[in-house]
Amino acid sequence: MISIEGLKVEFGVTPLFEDVSFVINKKDRIALVGKNGAGKSTLLKILAGLQRPTEGVVAVQRGVTIGYLPQVMVLSDTRTVIEETEMAFDHIAEMQARIDRMSQELAERTDYDSEGYHELIERFTHDNERFLMMGGTNYRAEMERTLTGLGFSRTDFERPTSEFSGGWRMRIELAKILLRRPDVLLLDEPTNHLDIESIQWLENFLKVCPGAVVLVSHDRAFINNVTNRTIEISCGHIYDYKVAYDEFVVLRKERREQQLRAYENQQKEIKDTEDFIERFRYKATKAVQVQSRIKQLEKIERIEVDEEDNSSLHLKFPPAMRSGNYPVICEGVRKAYGDHVVFHDVDLTIRRGEKVAFVGKNGEGKSTLVKCIMDEIPYEGQLTIGHNVLVGYFAQNQAQLLDENLTVFDTIDRVAKGDIRLKIRDILGAFMFGGEASDKKVKVLSGGERSRLAMIKLLLEPVNFLILDEPTNHLDMRSKDVLKEAIRDFDGTVIVVSHDREFLDGLVTKVYEFGGGLVKEHLGGIYDFLQKKRLESLDQLQLSQPSAAPAAKARKGEAPASESKLSYEALKEQNKRIRKLERQVADCEERIARIEEQVREVEERMATPEGASDMQLYERHQALKQQMAEVETEWEAAMMELEAMSN
């Protein structure tokens, strides 16, 4: 689909990478990996046609479409969520007209054996398949399903995009790209602003999408679950592995050991040659041999060894005084902004030494409860902070509190104590501030760099209670490993707000789930929680999946499946099933509308002074929310089966 040959990119004197050649095939799921600054995002921009290489060719097969999601984007503020998402289908009419023209041409032409006729059939088949995958003119349901999968509620659809944060607006752009169904998807850190449920939805989407996927991500679990090929950019070159990331790590270690042995042998050979030249440089009888060795030395292609892996660096929090047995106790904690209740009746007790995770969709109150614990915002109920609790808090805006006039090194030097001061350079290197980067002023750092620096500073402060709000968003895998090990060895108490399953795995022993105004406690690790959630909410969806298999199988042939190939009885049964599913979808949508109206009425009563203390109203509200979730799951399952049968 895309062929890359002899690619070279230069910024200044040293090439970012050179002589890069590889091919992207249909169904490839490629993880593009390498240290920060290796050129991953640059390569994606070149593949997307947004940047020209210094040398080399990027050849895109005719008719192949590309969708690109950058890390930073600009959205219009003049449209609602649904209107902005609908921009993904602005080419539907154009595609329909093109298909109609080709259909007319096929009907009129009689040169059935000509090469031009066969090319026309291929173009028609390709465009028609994409048109059907996009839902043709019936794309509203597909838009709603995609937005819901990425975490939006139906009440969000008519809100202007200007009301949403950057993370949510990134989801809108992601929805637009996914809905266009491009042949090749280029995704640059797509999980940075997604919660766990949305990440899992995106994983499932990418696994079954018919085109190729090339992604850059520091979420190890995500790339392991999605990809089947790993391309590493290292030392200006690429290494192509036809395996998922975990297998790549093993093979990479073996390759580096081989490189190291070859490098050491070459260095010995170079030294022996240089010694010979130096020893006999001024002896006339050896002049020919000396000149021969000099030429030999010049022709040697120097072996480069991949950058050293610093993840073996061990950090340890400095000792702090022992806190009380219960650093945090919440009893009936409630937080509301006007009529909007973020959460209510929160009862939780975190014991000394526990490491717990706060998870849930964005906007459900995870960071809000953290701010309540930090006493940054008012709340109702009782929240008690234990005796001798020293809090180390990493917030999303933590980077803004750094002194801009200090250098990176000085910022850390001022908080480091004892022997750790001897390792400042190593610590900075592990968090991607190696070499000259440690001498940069804070004022010139990017937002991600400031966040990493704030994280290092926190690691060196004597605290006994850590609260980390999305600490891994700007860390690469090596830095996350360093941080995870430091937290695991930390003998204090930890709350982690995160969507990174790999980071949470083996780190937390309890999960608090935020959703529907409630906070539920789940004992066990993050995968225990996810397994339980999957059993609770996905049973019906999983039961419906086998029915989609025949349609998926039919699409693997050379031509799209058509109703004309079905027998009369099979066609009759298929149409009967489609009508039944359409009725089921319509019925679900009516039930959802009724429940939404009931929820609205209950919430209006809860907002009154009398209703605020009526526990039956809260129970009714929760029951309606649960009922809504069940009906939405039924609607999504019916829609998936209907789409599969319609295609």
What does this structure look like?
The strands form 4 sheets. The chain has a 6-stranded mixed sheet, sandwiched between helices. With 647 residues, it is of the alpha/beta class. It starts with a strand and ends with a helix. The model is unreliable at 536-566 (pLDDT under 50). The longest helix has 39 residues, at 568-606. The protein contains 21 helices and 18 strands. Helix 3 runs antiparallel to helix 4, helix 5 crosses helix 6 (166-179) and helix 20 (568-606) runs antiparallel to helix 21. The protein has helices at residues 40-47, 81-86, 92-108, 115-133, 140-149, 166-179, 196-208, 220-226, 245-280, 287-299, 366-373, 408-413, 424-430, 447-459, 477-489, 501-504, 526-537, 539-544, 549-554, 568-606, 615-646, and strands spanning 2-10, 15-24, 29-33, 55-60, 66-69, 184-188, 212-216, 229-234, 237-241, 328-337, 340-350, 355-360, 380-385, 391-394, 465-469, 493-497, 510-515, 518-523.
Compile the SSE list and pairings.
Layout (H helix, E strand, L loop, with lengths): L1 E9 L4 E10 L4 E5 L6 H8 L7 E6 L5 E4 L11 H6 L5 H17 L6 H19 L6 H10 L16 H14 L4 E5 L7 H13 L3 E5 L3 H7 L2 E6 L2 E5 L3 H36 L6 H13 L28 E10 L2 E11 L4 E6 L5 H8 L6 E6 L5 E4 L13 H6 L10 H7 L16 H13 L5 E5 L7 H13 L3 E5 L3 H4 L5 E6 L2 E6 L2 H12 L1 H6 L4 H6 L13 H39 L8 H32 L1
Parallel strand pairs: 3-7, 3-8, 5-6, 6-7, 12-16, 12-17, 14-15, 15-16
Antiparallel strand pairs: 1-2, 1-4, 8-9, 10-11, 10-13, 17-18
Helix pairs in contact: 3-4, 5-6, 9-10, 20-21
